[in-house]
Amino acid sequence: MFFKLLRMNSYLKNIKSVSKNVTDILAVMGNESVDLDSAVSSISLAYHLSNFGISSRIIPDSKRSKSYNILPIINCKKEHLPLKTEVTYWLKEHGIELDSLICKDELNVDSSVKNFILVDHHVSAYHEKVVSVLDHRPYDEKSMLKKECIVNIQEIGSCATLVLEAIKNDLNTEDIKKDESLLHFLYGPIILDTINYSKDADKVRELDFEMTDIIEKALSIVNIEETRKSIFKALIDARADVSCLNSLQILSKDLKIVSNKDSTVKVAMSGLHVFEYPFMNDAAANVKVFADQENIDVIMFMGMKPVDDTVERHLAVMDIKNKNLYDDIIKTVESMKNPDLKLALNEDIKFLDGKFYSQGNVKASRKQILPVIRDLLQTY
């Protein structure tokens, strides 16, 4: 059962048509990996604010007297959007045209955007312009957010949960229930990011359950477990469908960047089993092409695949042009205690002198690993 977001699609098309001719923009922007949670959260919150107005509780008082054009920015280049297969699947199923979205290379962000609301991340080059944050990863002391910025950071399963909570705080529950299409749109990333409320993955928290309950009651879902399972499978299948992607495109599918002024580590995430990547066509050559294009020192490749009612995680580290940094990253991930990744080296895979691991601690995700790598880079 999918609901078409016709009014949302019209809003997106209209705001895109005028976006290049206005400068008073309040942009809702997700993270650079543009996973489902990030994309849906930014689009949904921008849509809500366009209807409710800047009197929303997530807008600081000092900004409420201003007039803004509110729009979501998809934080990737337009050419990379088709790589986000679970995102494009979910958008299309809800009647959102990909051409109605504004990607970051389709707008002069520096000159046009006056203020930002960040969703699903809170460290940004635009920190001076950030007025509000909704995020579900651990707080980063180096975020440099301004004191007046409204910050809602909770370590829960999904940022979409925080978006729905923000909408609920602006509206009453009965009004929320009237917008079934929006609720169903938010339902998907909550299910996906909590790994279908898996106890083993240990991502879901009480607020995720509370917001899910609002959705499921509003949509009058009878067979809850079957509905959740069906949506989860559809999204997992869409994310894992790399049949139309080559070994170069996969590296850009879900990407995080950690860097300092001298070194860059890129962490790619994929529904593809990491151990399968070396056997794809032109994999070694395309890793080198990707590294040259992006000026990368070290590549980390993380994969997660659901298996029955649990998940499997895998991790790979490949040196490109900084052996010292590569060695330090290997030592760091192998010796991590908080959390302990419980890595087991696969000695059968020989690929670009990299190391490929099974990750025994399936609860440890990129959200826990990235800050550790970021701290390591500060020593360089």
TrEMBL record:
Q: Which cofactor does it need?
A: Mn(2+)
**One Gene Ontology molecular-function label:** exopolyphosphatase activity
PANTHER family, per database record: BNIP - RELATED, EG:152A3.5 PROTEIN (FBGN0003116_PN PROTEIN)
Q: Which UniProt keywords apply?
A: Hydrolase, Manganese, Metal-binding
**The DHHA2 domain covers which part of the protein?**
232-377
Would you say which domain of life the source belongs to?
A: Eukaryota
| Cellular component, GO annotation | cytoplasm
Its source organism is Chironomus riparius
> Matching SUPFAM superfamilies, A to Z?
DHH phosphoesterases (SSF64182)
Q: What is this protein called?
A: DHHA2 domain-containing protein
Q: Which Gene3D superfamilies match?
A: DHHA2 domain, inorganic pyrophosphatase (n-terminal core)
Q: Which SMART domains match?
A: DHHA2 (SM01131)
The cross-references to InterPro entries, in alphabetical order and at most eight, read: DDH_dom, DHH_sf, DHHA2, DHHA2_dom_sf
Name the protein family. Belongs to the PPase class C family. Prune subfamily.
Source lineage:
Eukaryota, Metazoa, Ecdysozoa, Arthropoda, Hexapoda
